[in-house]
Amino acid sequence: MVNSKLSMSQQCVLVAKKTNRIMKCIMKSTAKSSDISRSSEMILPLYLALVRPHLECCSGLLSTGQMWSSWSRSQWKATRMIRGQEHLSYEKRLRKVGLFGLQKK
Fold this sequence. Notes:
- There is one protein chain.
- This protein has one domain (9-97).
- 62% of the residues lie in helices and 0% in strands.
- It is built from 4 helices and no strands.
- Helix 1 (9-29) runs antiparallel to helix 2 (40-58).
């Protein structure tokens, strides 16, 4: 979707909402008490297959800091869900699982 100013910001907002819904499904499907379902071997493939492609499709179009922060939030949630990494900073969690921030992409 492109508005009259030839901006795809509306499309990016819809994609951000979609990724948030997907992240909620991932969070609900992984039991908090189970170490296996909260491991990086379980969370990262789900995030990389279901969420990250949506974020990357609009990443070149984003220019506002507010939009970047809402998009980075999905990745922040995914790394935070991994058991044993809850206490680490976002940058340390990214390094530990081998991901880059969306702005570097």
